[in-house]
Amino acid sequence: MFLLFQYNKGYTPSWIKSKYGAWYLDPSSWKLRRADEPLEDPQSIKDKEMSESKKKSLAMDEQLAPLHGAKSFKDFIEKKDTRVPEFLERVAMFQAKAIAEQEAAATAESGHVASNSGVGSTKAYSITS
């Protein structure tokens, strides 16, 4: 009995049990997988891939926003009166945000300069009756 146990300890099967899919899923979505591997919903896999591509798309849109070509393309689309692509709407949003930040910075800068201009000056006012 002891010898049999030692012999079976080193045994590895030449085949691996596998499954394809579940009865409730579309057979075209079935893929070969190991039996011990959990079954994942194909829709959730697509959502994960989509979210990763959306992140990359947002990063790309943020890079496109300051470029002149993006603004020119938006003007062209508006001039032709056609549907504005989704990415161009996001680029326009980034552009509007950048313009608002620039205006806020310019307003703060000009307000700061205007308030400091009268600090050290002495002005004489004469009142005549």
Automatic annotation (TrEMBL):
Highest taxon listed in the record's lineage: Eukaryota
InterPro entries: FAM47
Residue stretches of biased makeup (Polar residues): 113-129
Region feature Disordered, mapped onto this chain: 35-56, 106-129
GO terms for cellular component: chromatin
GO biological process: transcription initiation-coupled chromatin remodeling
PANTHER family found in the cross-reference section: FAMILY WITH SEQUENCE SIMILARITY 47 MEMBER E, ZGC:158260
Family according to the record: Belongs to the FAM47 family.
Protein's name in the database: Uncharacterized protein
